[in-house]
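seq:
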Amino acid sequence: MLWISWGQDPRSCADLVFVFLAGVIFTWAGDTSRAAKHSLMSAMTDLAHQVRTRLARRTRRTIVAPELRRAAVLLPLHEQGGEPYVLFTRRTETVETHKGQISFPGGAADPGDADMQSTALRETQEEMGIPPTQVEVLGVLDDLSTTVSGFVVTPVVGIIPSPFPFRINSAEIAEVLTVPLRVFRDPSSLRVERREREGKRLDVYFYGYGKHEIWGVTARIIKGFVDAVFGDAEISPSSREP
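struct:
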């Protein structure tokens, strides 16, 4: 069974309609008047401009590590209920790596991928049914390495349509959830734990939202995104994860 969490308490969902039929999810939310749509489009346009500008003017950190596999993910932004949200997936217990964890759509690079952006968009289409032509790519974040699973991950930031008839790959995705972007911009939402691996002390990031805990490389991508787009400093989180 696939569960959908739309970032709202179930008691406040009277104005939302959700349909999951034959693997297709349709969503409708909020005020659909012309004035409301214009306001929402303006807000997302402003956010897109800020993200694109801030990412373009910074030097992106890349990792060259032939011993690690290459992978890419999409950090999907979308409008919901009048504000920007971030979309996540919870992986099934049958996938090869990061079983049951909350992640972004994405996966390992294929030989036929032109670049890491192509990898992120291809994997998003395979997992979510969103064609690459429907994603407005805003920029690319720093590479990160995962020492446990053995990947170098390239995060791509983009805006996806809302609403959209997702086609979920239920073999890979157990749950889809959306979280307001403001949650990650609130410093009180972030918890940092110091851990030791191979004699090195490392910071591990955690974001809590409802019953969910977002941590590991996904939390580090989010923190890097918030720091790069909304922070004053141009310092990225450590490029290595326990």
